[in-house]
Write a structure and sequence with these properties.
The protein has 285 residues and is mainly alpha-helical. Helices cover 69% and strands 0% of the residues. The chain contains 10 helices and no strands. The two termini are 41 Å apart.
Length: 285
């Protein structure tokens, strides 16, 4: 593996081209994750409810990340492999289903392009290293969580908890911070938002955020260490304020409608992993 990294670091064109192609392919897969994980959870919850009530399970086709095959939601046309090439297929089909000509959401190629661009940024900063490999998984998971939370206001445990454990494993080898800092980052990341949640509920009688937000900040703490938590919270609040106010002003969004906090945490965590130390030095100076 070290020889392979050495080859990539000495051939930057190969490294960047390979990363871009890989990012586009992963982005295409993330579109599947973003669409299907909530449906898989909903199906599982319904089945558990039926079992608890001793009812016959609902007759539904099991959903996984691989089955059933992707189809057009309007006409049921099975997506062919050549219709599923990242970005290129969307442009070739002019953003429409090849069968019924129903428009395809532009979000699909946007997710693919964003995944490729963020992957390139990681590789540009850290080169072909074990840290880059870890941070690519970190980046891809945050993209998925951002979109799922924006769509459904859910941060699935089957994504936030593996992200937390992966952060601890990465820092067992001290790729980002010492293991002790990572462990306390996970603990204080969870407790920080849990305390805010309890205080807000005590004062207003309402729930200000979900438990998934606690787990996501705990995962970010496991990756970045407890020292970076204030920066992450500050950045997420700043990003949330800017986006939230913009949505109210530009789109006329009702300010009383709940806005998911997970995307802001994810954006802040990704910024912090790249520029957190510089932001801390500027802040302290």
């Amino acid at each position: 593996m070290n020889d392979f990294f050495l080859f990539l670091n000495s051939n930057m064109a190969v490294l960047y081209t390979g990363t871009a192609v890989l990012g586009l392919l992963i982005g295409s897969f993330l579109n599947v994750v973003i669409h299907r994980i909530p449906k898989m959870l909903e199906q599982s919850w319904k089945q558990q409810c039926h079992e608890m009530l001793e009812m016959d399970p609902p007759e539904t086709q099991p959903i996984s990340l691989s089955k059933p095959n992707s189809t057009c939601p309007n006409c049921g046309h099975a997506i062919k492999p050549w219709e599923n090439i990242p970005v290129i297929s969307y442009l070739f089909l002019k953003g429409k289903c090849s069968d019924c000509k129903t428009g395809i959401s532009i979000r699909y190629p946007i997710v693919e392009i964003v995944t490729a661009l963020l992957s390139l940024v990681i590789v540009f900063y850290f080169g072909a290293t074990y840290l880059s490999v870890a941070l690519l998984f970190f980046t891809w998971t945050l993209i998925s969580l951002t979109m799922i939370d924006a769509d459904t206001q859910l941060l699935p445990d089957n994504m936030t908890l593996p992200l937390l454990w992966l952060g601890l494993i990465v820092n067992y080898f001290e790729l980002i911070v010492p293991l002790g800092s990572a462990v306390w980052g996970a603990i204080w990341g969870y407790m920080a938002l849990w305390l805010v949640y309890q205080g807000f509920k005590l004062l207003t009688g309402k729930e200000g955020m979900g438990y998934g937000d606690f787990k996501l900040l705990a995962a970010l703490g496991a990756w970045l260490g407890w020292q970076m938590l204030p920066i992450v919270i500050l950045l997420s609040s700043l990003v949330g304020a800017v986006i939230g106010i913009s949505m109210v002003i530009i789109k006329g969004k009702d300010k009383n409608i709940p806005i998911p906090f997970g995307p802001y945490l994810a954006i802040a965590g990704w910024i912090a992993v790249l520029w957190g130390n510089e932001i801390s030095r500027i802040w302290l100076s």
